[in-house]
Amino acid sequence: MRAFKWALAIGATLALPLTAQAQTGGAERLAALLESVTSYSADFDQQILDGGGQRLQEAEGHMWLSRPGKFHWEVEAPYRQVVVSDGDKVYLYDPDLEQVSVRPLDTRVTHTPALLLSGSADALTENYAVESRQGDDEETFTLTPKSPDTLFESLQLTFENERLEGLQMEDSTGQSTAIAFDDIEVNGDIDASRFTFEIPEGADVIREGG
Q1: pLDDT tens readout for residues 180-192
Q2: What is the pLDDT, as a whole number, of residue 14?
Q3: For the chain, what percent of residues have pLDDT higher than 70?
Q4: Which long-range contacts (CB under 8 A, 24 or more apart) does 16-22 make?
Q5: What are phi and psi of 106, to 5 degrees?
Q6: What is d(CA 56, CA 49) in angstroms, rounded to the nearest whole number?
Q7: pTM of the entire structure?
Q8: In 3-state terms, what secondary structure has residue 27?
Q9: Which end of the chain is more exposed for a tag (fewer CB within 10 A), N or C?
């Protein structure tokens, strides 16, 4: 199956220049911003960059999140890919390969940054060291996992006027994933069917982890 790592380990766009002043209570502030979000939907543009900043891959699509634990991430171009969580299981679908991978939802937010947005923000202090910086209308939070058993080494979330605008993830190889969001709707109504996945007839199904 083509790499779905990027979908489960959401990264994002580089922050604009910020003041160098470190903010205290970064984890508490980030938790407050996330806890105010019950649902989130947006178009996204994703770029995967190598350690030297050269673009390796680009994709675009749409995402929907609903707390707790539900998300739907759909790449529309250059080829379609779908990741759906119903709060219990995660379905990873590659239409070109006609293959579906089904795995239990890992509620440890250190494993899946998507759950940082759709799960419990209370786990922030326990699982991450959080640093924050603030500009006029922009806040950037850099999260470093306390556990070595993660998909990324650092994760940066950028908010503008208290609304999530971008994410950036870097892994142990130096490769980074940058995602910028557009046409954002916060706390809007999302049809519950977005978070259910019907396995297409004839698709190969791979079940992982029971």
Answers
A1: 999 999 999 999 9
A2: 22
A3: 77
A4: 16/135, 16/138, 16/158, 17/135, 18/133, 18/134, 18/135, 18/138, 18/140, 19/133, 19/134, 19/135, 20/133, 21/133, 21/134, 22/131, 22/132, 22/133
A5: -90, 110
A6: 5
A7: 0.79
A8: helix
A9: C
